[in-house]
Write a structure and sequence with these properties.
By secondary structure, this protein is an alpha+beta fold. It is built from four helices and seven strands. The chain has a single domain, classed as Beta Barrel (Barwin-like endoglucanases), CATH 2.40.40. Strands 3-2-7 form a three-stranded antiparallel beta sheet. It has a two-stranded parallel ribbon with strand order 1-4.
Length: about 110
């Protein structure tokens, strides 16, 4: 997970490129090792909780790093510890260690 610092979420061009729903991004080599492709469903989890989502692939990400634009999804925020910015005194979510695993068809059927 990565921190994303934006001034005004509603008008920021960088945020708008994600569309109405943001997705966690992975390096394509990591995705290939895990048997994942663009848009595949995954479980993202750690000791704080889990979320079910789909992934997108980004060549520019280093291997071993997943990013998620945290301004979009409360589920993702559950996975990250809350920190207070010393300068501004506002809360932000920085990073967290997570496990990412592909969801199998059987698990997807059970969730429906």
């Amino acid at each position: 997970m990565a921190n994303a610092a934006f001034r005004r979420a509603g008008s920021d061009v960088t945020l708008k490129q994600h569309g109405p729903r943001a997705l966690p991004a992975l390096n394509p080599l990591d995705a290939e090792r895990w048997g994942l492709g663009e848009g595949d469903p995954v479980r993202v989890a750690n000791e704080r909780g889990e979320m079910i989502t789909t992934v997108t692939l980004r060549d520019r990400l280093p291997e071993g790093l997943a990013t998620y634009p945290e301004h979009f999804d409360e589920q993702a925020r559950v996975l990250m510890p809350l920190t207070i910015d010393n300068g501004a005194g506002v809360p932000y979510y920085r990073s967290a260690r997570v496990e990412i695993e592909p969801l199998k068809d059987v698990e997807l059927e059970r969730m429906r």
